[in-house]
Amino acid sequence: MATDSHATLAEPTGIEQHGIERVSPSARHDVRIFDNFTMWLSANLVLSTIAVGTLAVAIFQMGFWDSVLAIVLFNILGVLPVSFFSTLGPKLGLRQMTITRFSFGWIGAGIMALFNVAACIGWSAVNVIVGAELLSHITGGAMPPWAGILVIAFLTTVVSLYGYSHVHRYERVAWIPMALIFAALMIVAGPHAKIVATPAINLAWLAGFISFGGAVYGFATGWSSYAADYNVNQPENTSPARVFWLTFFGVTIPCIVLETFGLMLSTAFKGHSPSDLLVAAVGPMGGFGTVVLGLLALSIVANNIPNDYSLGLSMQVLGTAFQKINRAVWTVLGAIIYVAIAIPAVGKFNQTMEGFLLLIAYWLGPWTIILVIEHFVIRKKTYNIDDWDTRSKLPTGWAAMTAMLVGLFGVYLGAAQEKFVGPLAMKLNPPYGIDIGFELGMILAGIVYLFLRPIERKTDPK
């Protein structure tokens, strides 16, 4: 059985050996509380965030100001669980998917970890496509997308391999050049933006607003399942309020600003992908514009590092045998898989992005509400921390898994995707549907868990 320890380095490689084992309070020496801001600022001040905003007009047929409203509203909603879960890192000293064991139990947490592994791989694949397409554009096709994917994946994996300290060192500074570049782009491209009129406020508009909002929510809340991974080495008495707000602004500021900028680009220039729009936007910059585009493509590294690092941790949650394999091994395997997925998906970015963001929101909604109810209602903020790796002392998890299944059934009823429209979504707005999948899933899962979890505790008081 694993014991409490601090993240150690294996010489001479310097690769972090610490995995999902709890970091004891006495071993926590990371006192840079501002890392809670820079970590998420760098991870979101990237090319992929712009891409989300470009979906509003092109895919969901929305206007300018209603798109801005959706960007602000659904980002705030999506970041709330990320900010809350971040406070549990210093409090518990456990990684995010390990905390899931206190509600889902040993087996259930393993299943949720697999969901998260799929999310990590999916995010990385979607992100790397954006960067690779841009590299292909600026090299005039000399670097084909598959080669760009390999370059970005290699750079991401190198940083992710070394672990917690190196991730923070990179993210601590990665936002600075990106902030300068995006500011310059906004000055150059901003005047070309057009205020697209808001369509008639009817059922079709509402369907677009909610569906685009779901994509925005999915991008923001996608960090929920990683949130506590990046501050477990901070002292136990770290202010939860400061962690919450630093995380909140670290995600919302870049997401709102860059998604709005992506929206502006989609109204100012013509193109089939975000890279097309950016190539048009930097035209007035001449040769310097090529440098800017290259740096933007490489910004994907900062966005994908958390995906790669947390993937390795999630694999260890599957059980003792998986925990014995170093996190770095799982990180490399994950990189190989997402590269294999991304290469054939190039050229289908908008459809891939829309569908994937909504799928992320689908499962994270029920999962999030279950953990929130467990924390505030069931455990009343108190955990038997030493039980984290003892299967017999954890809940069986049947209440959480039942609630999750009911939540996913709600998702089925309310989903509205290009290739599938749920029966309830179809009735609300035939024939295209209105996507209320994540909202319905979260509500149903919450109701079921509130009812079943107290019953579970009567026979299994863990």
Give, in order, the helices and strands: EEHHHHHHHHHHHHHHHHHHHH
Overall average pLDDT: 90
| Straight-line distance between termini | 19 Å
Rg, Å, rounded: 21 Å
Number of strands: 2
Q: How is the largest sheet built, in terms of strand order?
A: 1-2
The percent of residues in helical segments reads 55-70%
Class of secondary structure makeup: mainly alpha
Beta-strand percentage?
A: under 5%
- Report the biggest beta sheet as strand number plus sense, adding barrel if it closes: 2 strands, antiparallel
Q: Poorly predicted ranges (pLDDT <50, ≥5 residues)?
A: 1-12
Number of H/I helices: 20
Which outline best applies? globular
Please explain how this structure is put together:
- The chain is mostly helical and 462 residues long.
- The chain has helices at residues 35-44, 47-53, 55-58, 64-86, 88-92, 96-99, 101-138, 145-162, 164-189, 203-221, 240-268, 274-281, 287-298, 300-316, 320-323, 327-345, 349-378, 398-414, 423-428, 437-459; strands spanning 9-10, 15-16.
- A two-stranded antiparallel ribbon has the order 1-2.
- β1 and β2 (15-16) form a beta hairpin.
- α4 packs parallel to α10, α4 packs antiparallel against α11 and α14 packs across α16 (327-345).
- The two termini are 19 Å apart.
- The model is unreliable at 1-12 (pLDDT under 50).
Helix-strand blueprint:
Elements (H helix, E strand, L loop, with lengths): L8 E2 L4 E2 L18 H10 L2 H7 L1 H4 L5 H23 L1 H5 L3 H4 L1 H38 L6 H18 L1 H26 L13 H19 L18 H29 L5 H8 L5 H12 L1 H17 L3 H4 L3 H19 L3 H30 L19 H17 L8 H6 L8 H23 L3
Antiparallel strand pairs: 1-2
Helix pairs in contact: 1-9, 1-11, 2-11, 4-10, 4-11, 7-8, 7-12, 7-13, 7-14, 7-16, 7-17, 7-18, 8-14, 8-16, 9-14, 10-17, 11-12, 14-16, 17-18, 17-20, 18-20
